[in-house]
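Regression check, FE2/S2 (inorganic) cluster case 286:
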Amino acid sequence: MPRKLFTFLQHRLAGRTPRLLEPMPGDVLDAGIGDMVSLAPERVTEENVSQYLRSYAALQTRVFRERRRNLMLEEVDRIHLRLREEMQQKLDAFSLADRVMMPLYMGLIELPGQLIRVDFRSCRVEVVSEVRDLSRYVFLASAADIVRVLDRKLNWEDFLLSFRFRASRTPDVYDTSLHNFLAAEIEDLRAMCDNTLATESRQERTVVTAGGQRYAVNRYCPHQGADLREGWVEEGRYLVCPRHRWRFDLQDGGVCGTNGCSIKAECLGKEKEEPREASAERLPAM
Ligand code: FES
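Current build output:
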C-alpha cells in the first residue's frame, strides 16, 4: 500500500515532501529533467488493480491451457526423465548430502504415480509409485513449469520464488541443506558446499551483549554465512541475523526455534556496569 506509506511519511517528515512515482511499462524516467514522463496508455491504480488482474488472468488462460495440453500429448515422460537425471546430477555434486535427514520426493502433477525419490543417505535417485517415508519433503509441479528450469530459461532459485509448485514437509522443520540443494544450479553446488564448509571451519567467535548478559557465539550465520556482528538483539535474548532475520535464542544455547540451527551461544556472565545508550544492544566488536 504505497499510498498509505506516503501519507504516513508526509505526516512524519515535516518540511519534506516525498514523491510517489508509479511507473508503468512504457513510461520514461528522464535523468535530464529528473522526472518521470508518463507515456503508458494503461495505468494500474489501487482502484482498478482487481479488475486489471482479473482481465489479465482471463487473457492468459488459453496460453497456459494449451501449453499443458500439448505437453500431455508429447513430452511429459521426457520431462520426467530429464528431471530425474537433473536430480541425480545435483546429488552427485552435493557433498553435504549426509546432512539431509529426510528424502525428497519430486513429482509432476501430470504423472501422479511416478514420484522421483531422492535419497540423500544412499545418494540414489529412483522412481517410486507413492510416498513411503513418514519423514519426507514432497515437491510437486507441473511439467510445463519444470521444463522451463530444465531448459535453463529459469533458474531453480527463481522457480522456487515463483510459487508455481506445491510443497510439504513432515516434520515441519526448515532444512537449510535440503533447501540449498533445491535452490542451487548443478554447476554451483560444489562451490556452495565448499563455501559452507569453509565458513564453518573458520569457527570465528564473537561476543554479544543481550539482556544484561554477555554471550560468546559463532560469528557467521549457519544459514548462508552472514556476519552476525551486523545483527541485533530483540527481546533481550534473540540475536537476529541481518540477512534473512533468523532469530537465535541466546538463552537456549543459540538455537533458532524454527529450524534447530545453532550459533552455539555460551553465557560469559553479566555485562560490565558501564553507562551505555539504549541502542547498545548491537553487537560490540570482539
Ligand atoms: S544468512 Fe540467512 S538467516 Fe542468516
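Comparison notes: Residues 76-190 form a domain with the Nonspecific Lipid-transfer Protein; Chain A fold (CATH 3.30.1050.10). DSSP finds seven helices and 14 strands in the chain. No diff flagged against the previous build.
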